[in-house]
Design brief:
- By secondary structure, the protein is mainly β.
- It has one domain (3-367): Neuraminidase, CATH 2.120.10.
- It is 5% helix and 41% strand.
- It has helices at residues 16-22, 357-367, and strands at 34-36, 41-42, 51-53, 59-63, 66-70, 99-103, 109-114, 123-124, 129-130, 138-143, 151-157, 166-169, 175-183, 188-196, 204-205, 221-227, 233-238, 243-249, 258-265, 272-275, 281-285, 293-299, 310-315, 319-329, 332-343, 346-348, 352-356.
- It has a 5-stranded antiparallel β-sheet with strand order 1-23-22-21-20.
- Strand 8 and strand 9 form a beta hairpin.
- The longest helix is centred in the C-terminal third of the chain and has 11 residues, at 357-367.
- It is globular, with a radius of gyration of 19 Å.
């Protein structure tokens, strides 16, 4: 299974009753295989995201059928509103295509997504290169009426581009999506950003951040992004070299000039970075554990230093990975494992948690002896 071609919301149709049965409370678990930190609460939301908050406070999400709206914090959803072709999943719908959504300061709803209509993963193992026609393109579309109608559908990056975990609007109003992109000779991934200064009507691509490597899981993969206090952008990039890499932009994502290994250890799985309303950075990933542990770290100095990780949950013999991360309200954080399996890639058991920023920051400081 090519995990990089699978979106972070693999498991969608699970009832709230099943969720409450599967999510651990107070450190108790459904069985010995699942442990959840006692400070976590079960999140009674039907779906794995992505979510955005609309002007009226309701939530909107995307699934292969379109966009839906919830008036009860994601416990129930409206019937889907069709968006466009290409959001209906890979391999006949068996694997939903990655997508991200932002509601802009001007009120537009913008979706950036991997288009399934021309999807073709084709790799030549003999020479360790993508074959001709290997394709998964990044497209964008937007709505000016809250998702009722959609306009300006366009391809914004050609070629093959797997999952992405970064789509934000900066304080200046610029949209920034950070994505991986496959290149050849040797075959590997590089990272870049796609930016728009007109609420998703037109787009530009940055320079390519090339860390080297060779192979269909090598190079700069699945970046995530946040805006720092001084206006710089920080991109954290998944690699298979034991740690995430940092890339910084001082021009709003038009270019990335400072690239270096980060302090954050990695097990070659993606993470999700958020700038919280408190001013802290928060990052959920698998860290230096394997995919059985979902970890949370914080930074109070825009990523110069990080707390020690706190284990949110672990799944013995299985995995909890490809997280979605949202600050639903100030200090109220939602953490959802896109991949949550009892054993390897088998027996899905959802993990959707609501946590307190202050409580877990206190745990992180305590673990660090602070």
């Amino acid at each position: 299974m090519n995990s990089y071609s699978i979106v972070r919301f693999l498991i969608r149709a699970v009832s709230v009753a099943s969720l409450l049965a599967c999510a651990a409370v107070g450190g108790a678990a459904e069985d010995d295989a699942r442990w959840v930190h006692p400070l976590c609460q079960p999140l009674a939301v039907d779906g794995n995201g992505p979510f955005i908050e609309l002007a009226d406070g309701n939530l909107m999400t995307i699934d292969p059928q379109g966009v839906r709206v919830s008036q009860d914090d994601g416990q129930t959803w409206s019937e889907p509103q069709k968006v466009c072709e290409g959001l209906d999943g890979l391999r006949g719908g068996g694997e939903p295509a990655s997508s991200a959504i932002v509601r802009t300061q001007g009120g537009a709803v913008v979706i950036v997504y991997l288009d399934s209509t021309t999807y073709n993963f084709s790799w030549d193992n003999a020479i360790n290169q993508p074959k001709d026609g290997c394709r998964l393109e990044v497209w964008a579309i937007r709505s000016l009426d809250g998702g009722k109608t959609w306009i300006d559908r366009q391809r914004i990056l050609e070629g093959y581009n797997p999952n992405f975990f970064g789509f934000i609007q900066t304080r200046s109003g610029r949209l920034v999506a950070t994505v991986p992109h496959m290149v050849r000779d040797p075959g590997r991934y590089v990272a870049c950003s796609l930016t728009s200064d007109d609420d998703g009507k037109t787009w530009k691509r940055s320079n390519l951040v090339d860390l080297g490597g060779h192979g269909h899981h090598s190079g700069a993969m699945e970046p995530t992004v946040a805006e720092l206090g001084d206006g710089q952008l920080l991109m954290l990039i998944r690699t298979h070299w034991g740690r995430f890499w940092d890339a910084y932009s001082d021009d709003g994502g038009l270019s990335w000039r400072t690239v270096q290994p980060s302090q954050i250890e990695s097990t070659s799985a993606p993470g999700f970075l958020l700038k919280l309303r408190s001013g802290r950075l928060a990052f959920v990933s698998n860290g230096n554990a394997d995919r059985t542990h979902l970890l949370l770290i914080f930074s109070e100095d825009d990523g110069k230093t990080w707390t020690k990780p706190v284990v949110l949950a672990r799944q013995k013999d299985g995995q909890l990975s490809y997280p979605f991360f949202l600050e639903r309200r100030p200090g109220e954080l939602w953490v959802i494992a896109g991949f949550a399996f009892k054993k390897g890639w088998q027996e899905p058991v959802p993990l959707r948690l609501k946590i307190s920023e202050e409580a877990f920051f206190g745990e992180a400081k305590k673990d660090a002896g602070g």
